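pinned: reference chain
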Amino acid sequence: MTYDRGSTAVLTRDWLKERFGDEGFQKIAGKLSADARNMLLNTHSNAWYPTPLIKEVYKAVSDEYAGKNPDIMYDCGRYCAEKSATGILRFLMKNMTIENLFKRTKSFWKHFNKGGGAEATMLESEGSGKKLKFTIYEYDAGVPGCQTMQGFIEGIAKMSDSRAKDVRVEKKDCLYNGDGYCSWIISWG
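pinned: its structure tokens
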């Protein structure tokens, strides 16, 4: 089993409240199992929570809001990236290349997750652009979790390397398409 650090639930909770107000937040909390609701309501940012609980939260949000806004979970991921990178970290990220940022993937993963893993591999460049493949394995937060992760990756990549232009993130592989892992291609000029 994999676990997520409580900071994931804290940021998701804050995003829900900011995006949908207390009424929308309570609506989602009311759709959750007792354990997932307790995690969302009483999260400790340094505690560890089983991944199926955050998966349940993501699914409830997606079920409620994705029909009207298909990009809602990407928005959640971008919000989490924005709020995760504050102060000196944000300054350091702007001066770090996307390539160097994602080289630290294994360290970042271990800080926020127990179990599973992540890696980044540079791909052959086309012209003056660069590409890398970001892969997560042995981790299942559901399809809405994949969308949240893509938004997070996009947010982090766009905050780093102030010289990078036209940063794009595209889903490549997915557990839910029969692949053994989830991966994204990050490209920039």
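why pinned: The chain has two domains: 3-70, 77-188. Residues 13 and 40 are 6 Å apart (CA to CA).
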